[in-house]
Amino acid sequence: KEFIMENKKNIEQNFNEVEKIIEAMQKEDVTLDESFKLYNQGLKIIKDCNQQIETIEKQIKIINEEAQQNV
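RE: above sequence
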C-alpha cells in the first residue's frame, strides 16, 4: 500500500514556523494583541503537527502489521 500525505507543510517546516513565532513573541515591542494572534497561530500549527504524527504512527502500525503477516 502507498500512503499519500496531504499537500501540507511537513513537520520540519511547521517546527521552523513555530520557532519563528516564539522568537517573534519574545520581542520587546510585540503588543499583547499581536502576541495573542501569534500564540493562536502557533497552537494551530502544533495541532497540525500532532495530526501528522498520528497519521505517520498509524501508517507505521499498518506497515508493521503487514510485515508480521508476511513473515
